[in-house]
Amino acid sequence: MLWQFIDWSRERALGELERKSRAQLQLYTSHLQGQLEKYEFLPELLATNERLVNRLRDPGNAAEVEAINRYLESINRIADASDTYLMNSEGLTIAASNWRMERPFVGSNFAYRPYFQEAMRGRLGRYFALGTTSNKRGYYFAYPVRHGGEILGAVVVKINMREIEESWSRADQEMLVTDPDGVIFITTRKGWRYKTLAPLEVEVRERIRASRRYVDEPLDSLDLRIRGERGADARLLVLREGAERGYLAVEQEMAEAGWKVHILAATRPALNQVLRMLLGLLFALLLGGMLVLFWLQRRRRVRERERFKRQEQRNLRRNYSPYKIEKSA
């Protein structure tokens, strides 16, 4: 009976934790999706700008170089993006919003980046990577710049993910986002950044290295063990980081980006709640038992006193004899 109560209490606490985690996960995912959608349209809009088209058609026109850089700088500031830049068909950056910086993108070739390759195929390119020049994490949108039926190059907008990450910090749960290969690139736990949920296969590592997605990060895996499944998108985990810590993990896909957003809620508070409930129950049982014992003892004493009283009364009746008056002759 007691063990059944413990199991019921534990499941009830974990169920409530899962419900809250799913609600929080939905908020995180919607916020992240909204942030991406704010910038998704911008490269396509810029790709229609005649000044950018003409810059790609006539790359030798030096008079336009600074004007285009200033234009991209202005757009980048207004949009509050991280960087905005223009690449020719060979992947060479010929104009950039960060042209005044110590390490500008101008002159850098990013032809190896998948977002550029997608744009050169005539599609919107999207990609998360660690910047090889800036060494800053960012999400990239790239769109082809056309003239007639020819793709002349691509315009790229990079957004900073750090502010999103910082806004998600909570004491009782960890949030993380993984790419299609299971690499963590956004997380509230700094030490988990660029870790993986499971060891990577050799060919996956080679593909990531070729794209320079995470530059020279080792991409080590977290020491995770699954302790129980709670459906297709939720499970109980144990993470070893010195000491073991238990988590309830819930995940949700972002199909367009190809990401998964995860919440890892610590199970200790929920299990401590069960422990407190159990201790409360045991205390109530102990108190109840003591009250019952006290009542039984008191009842026994009352009965003993009543029995003793009745016995005394019998003794008195048995030993009582009336006075006799003797007559003398």
UniProtKB/TrEMBL annotation:
Pfam families cross-referenced by the UniProt entry: dCache_1 (PF02743)
One GO location term (cellular component): plasma membrane
Domain Cache: 14-188
Keyword DNA damage attributed: no
UniProt KW Cell membrane keyword: yes
Coiled coil ranges: none
CDD domains reported in the protein's UniProt record: PDC1_DGC_like
Membrane topology of this protein: Multi-pass membrane protein
Record's keyword terms, sorted: Cell membrane, Membrane, Transmembrane, Transmembrane helix
Bilayer-crossing regions: 274-296
Subcellular location: Cell membrane
Descriptive protein name: Cache domain-containing protein
Species assigned in the record: Candidatus Sedimenticola endophacoides
